[in-house]
Each structure stands twice: as structure tokens, then as C-alpha cells.
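Q: Please design a sequence for this.
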């Protein structure tokens, strides 16, 4: 398989959507118009994105909700089957599957994604999660290792098995620390390399991404910190003879006037925040994950209700475009976007923000 994928070969700032497979998307709110993550809604969204030459859709994988009045993320479409269905109904869009290594056997995943590769004409990507959500581990009868080094050592062997199945002809045995396989083989194989993403925030996670991923998925709560982190990540990858880019995620509230946008932010994320779900979400992140710097989490708690801690793109179309340009200037190569209601709000973003990005050369809708 070639090392460059059709997704990583894109030269513009890539844009996608984030977490439309889960109830409420990325907004911890009780408002009635919050996102309904039904299959029908996801399929309608995928068709809108495909027609607009948006690059990708990116899911999370969830099995236990975060409680509160909305049970935030309690209703979640499984990401491999979700991706397969969307890819069968679109033409250009890339769709990622988010896989928790500890909960999915690598031999099964290798065959699943090789199958989706055929269904989609190689438009499937893989987001590898080493593990962080302790309630979901308990729900599966598993124990979450307390240290990130152990989690990523398991994920490394898991991905090594997947890669071997995708590249090795014939049967082979595998004797590792975590997997003991006898006369296993992988057919079919993907026809082209899949774009690989990892969201590791710990040192072990960043090292895993440098070794294996095409993209690190990282927060942009603090752009100055992100600029330095992104430059250092690329330098580390270059020292290892690899290239890596960085994706982030952002929450969009785009309206004709600044006042309308700020009023809607107040309405959704402050006046009608699901406080119990927000408390539970922050508690889980601080206790078990290093995807966000913990000092930043504590300072910016309010921003977690609107976009789950993503960079906030709130304002007029020009202001939202300025925010996307700031992300690019900070060294990000793309962003996965969330909306309170993706279907209701994306068309205005498409019609007003994308032309500005095109005019500035941040994206080329013709090339996309």
C-alpha cells in the first residue's frame, strides 16, 4: 500500500464534522433543538457535506452516557457500522471509524476496515483510542490501566497486528505480550493506506502518534500553547523520518450579527446547560484522560458546555473564517466542526463561511 493516502494528500485546510453519531453532538445543553443522532439525521448530514465538498466526518465511540437530564452521549451509533452506511451513500466524503483498542480484537477490526475500504473506494479512516473512559471499561468487564504507558503499549501491539494483517501475504503466528495468534491471515486487504488518527495528549500518546499516525487529534483551547506543541510534534516526527499533521475540533455558532451569535451561545451553553452532565464530563476528563491540559480545563470550564472544549468559532461569517485562519496559523492542518444542530446550521456555514475561506486560499472548493 502507498504511504500517502487520498486524505493525507489534500493540500488545503481540511474541514469535517465531529461527533454527529452521538446524542447532543458536542453541546452539553438541554435546548429542544439539540442534535438528535438518529441514522436518518446522520445520513442527511452526510449528503449535505458530500455535496459541499466537505472532507470528512469524525465520530467518537461511546457505550455509557454521562448522565444528567440529557444523558449526554448516551445514544451513540456504533462507529464502524455508521461509517459503512454513510460511505455507501456518498461519493467524495471520507468517514473515520473510532476504535477503542482494548474493546475490539485487531483481527476483527482489520477485516472490518478492509471490507469498508472496498465498499467506499478507499474513503475510510481509522481513529485509534488507547483507552480513557473508566465507566465504559467497567461496563465491558475490563480494568482501565492507571498509567498511559501501559495503555499505549497495548495499543501499539494491537496496531502492529492490524498492520501485519494488512501487509503480510499468507498466514503467520504472533507471540506478543498481549496477543497470541496462530496461523492467522488477513484477506481482503485495504487497497490503499488508511489515514490514521490518534488523540493522545500524554507523552506516551504523542510518541504513539509520532510512530504510527498521519494526524494527531489535539485540542486548541490555548492557541499559543498549541502553536508550540504542533511545531514540536512535527520536529519529533521528522527526527524519526516521518511526517505528521495535526487536526483539532471547533464549535461553530455562525449568525448574521455578532449579537445573535453571542445570544445563542448564552442560550445553549449557559442558560440551558445540562450541569450534571457537564460536571460528570469534566470529572471523567480530569481523572482519566490527558487529551486536554488539566490546568486549561479548570480555567475554561464554561467552554466545555459549548463544543466539549473545542475551539469556539462564534460570530459572523467573517469572524468564524478569521477563527479558522487562526487555527491554520497555529499549525493545525484541519478541524472537525460541531454545531448545536448540524443539519439546521451547516447550510448557513456552507453558504457564507466556505466562500470566504476559498477567497483567502485556505480551502479550494474547486480542488476539493
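A: Design:
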Amino acid at each position: 500500500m502507498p504511504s500517502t493516502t487520498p486524505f493525507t494528500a489534500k493540500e488545503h485546510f481540511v474541514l469535517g464534522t465531529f461527533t454527529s453519531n452521538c446524542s447532543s453532538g458536542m453541546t452539553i445543553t438541554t435546548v429542544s433543538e439539540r442534535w438528535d443522532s438518529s441514522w436518518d439525521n446522520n445520513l442527511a448530514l452526510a449528503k449535505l457535506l458530500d455535496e459541499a465538498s466537505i472532507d470528512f466526518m469524525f465520530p467518537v465511540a461511546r457505550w455509557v452516557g454521562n448522565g444528567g437530564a440529557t444523558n449526554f452521549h448516551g445514544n451513540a451509533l456504533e462507529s464502524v457500522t455508521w461509517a459503512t452506511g454513510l460511505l455507501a451513500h456518498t461519493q467524495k466524503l471520507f468517514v473515520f471509524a473510532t476504535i477503542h483498542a482494548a474493546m475490539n480484537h485487531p483481527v476483527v477490526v482489520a477485516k472490518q476496515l478492509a471490507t469498508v475500504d472496498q465498499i467506499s473506494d478507499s474513503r475510510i479512516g481509522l481513529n485509534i483510542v488507547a483507552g480513557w473512559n473508566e465507566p465504559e471499561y467497567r461496563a465491558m468487564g475490563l480494568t482501565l490501566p492507571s498509567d498511559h504507558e501501559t495503555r499505549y503499549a497495548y495499543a501499539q501491539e494491537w496496531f502492529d497486528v492490524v498492520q501485519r494483517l494488512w501487509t503480510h501475504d499468507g498466514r503467520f503466528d504472533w507471540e506478543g505480550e498481549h496477543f497470541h495468534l496462530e496461523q492467522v491471515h488477513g484477506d481482503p486487504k485495504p487497497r490503499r493506506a488508511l489515514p490514521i488518527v490518534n488523540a493522545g495528549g500524554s507523552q506516551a500518546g504523542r510518541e504513539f502518534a509520532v510512530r504510527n499516525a498521519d494526524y494527531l487529534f489535539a485540542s486548541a483551547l490555548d492557541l499559543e500553547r498549541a502553536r508550540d506543541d504542533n511545531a514540536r510534534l512535527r520536529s519529533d516526527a521528522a527526527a524519526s523520518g516521518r511526517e505528521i499533521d495535526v487536526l483539532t475540533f471547533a464549535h461553530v455558532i455562525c449568525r448574521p450579527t455578532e449579537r445573535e451569535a453571542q445570544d445563542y451561545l448564552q442560550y445553549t451553553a449557559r442558560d440551558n446547560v445540562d450541569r450534571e452532565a457537564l460536571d460528570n464530563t469534566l470529572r471523567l476528563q480530569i481523572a482519566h484522560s490527558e487529551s486536554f491540559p488539566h490546568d486549561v480545563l479548570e480555567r475554561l470550564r464554561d467552554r466545555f458546555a459549548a463544543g466539549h472544549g473545542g475551539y469556539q468559532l462564534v460570530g459572523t461569517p467573517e469572524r468564524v473564517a478569521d477563527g479558522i485562519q487562526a487555527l491554520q496559523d497555529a499549525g493545525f492542518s484541519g478541524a472537525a466542526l460541531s454545531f448545536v444542530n448540524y443539519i439546521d446550521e451547516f447550510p448557513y456555514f456552507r453558504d457564507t463561511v466556505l466562500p470566504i475561506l476559498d477567497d483567502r486560499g485556505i480551502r479550494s472548493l474547486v480542488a476539493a
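Q: Thanks. Anything notable?
A: Residues 14-359 form a domain with the TIM Barrel fold (CATH 3.20.20.30). The chain has a mean pLDDT of 92.
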